[in-house]
Design goal:
About 60% of the residues lie in helices and about 15% in strands. By secondary structure, it is an alpha+beta fold.
């Protein structure tokens, strides 16, 4: 059985890992001729952008739902139900992000391009699992 201090530490560690994930690259795709799109939580960066690149680049803000779930996790240090809600919401957000990432990988391969996972997604997955463990431990704590 995990005690409350350990559970709170797990939630806090999950929030720190999540916050770190919000500033690191999530994934990148590369296309010919040397165009690379780096996706972060708060938008995209196009490297070697050609002149005919379409205006209004698709720039998903994955960071908004993840920041909201991290806020719930922080609230969960004081309100146990918030931690569980934050962890569950973050698990859902990570699931959606995973589906979108797999789709983008398939698109890159179809275009004869390259695809690479960034450290941001690794930190996000780790943070989600750690926070979920802490949130479940807080729920199991005897009242």
């Amino acid at each position: 059985m995990i005690g409350r201090p350990t559970a709170v530490a797990l939630i806090a560690a999950g929030v720190v890992l999540t916050a770190t994930a919000l500033i690191l690259p999530w994934y990148s795709t590369a296309y010919a001729p040397n165009v690379e799109v780096i996706v972060r939580a708060w938008g995209t960066e196009v490297v070697n952008k050609p002149g005919d690149w379409p205006a209004g680049e698709l720039s998903p803000w994955y960071g908004l739902p993840i920041a909201a779930t991290a806020a719930l996790l922080v609230a969960g240090i004081w309100v146990s139900r918030a931690a569980l809600a934050g962890a569950a919401a973050q698990l859902g957000a990570v699931g959606i992000t995973t589906a979108l990432t797999i789709s983008e990988r398939g698109h890159a391969v179809e275009q004869q391009g390259d695809f690479a996972i960034g450290f941001g997604l690794v930190f996000l997955a780790a943070g989600t699992l750690v926070a979920l463990t802490g949130a479940v431990a807080v729920q199991r704590e005897p009242k």
